[in-house]
Amino acid sequence: MHGGLVWLAVAVLLAAGEAAGGELFLIMLAGGALGGAAAAALGAPLWGQALAFALVSIILVAGVRPVVRRRMLAALPEHDTNTAALTGRDGTVVESIGPSGGLVEIAGDTWTARPLIEGETFDAGDKVLVHEIDGATAIVVRGI
Question: Residues in domain NfeD-like C-terminal (predicted)?
Answer without folding.
Answer: 84-141
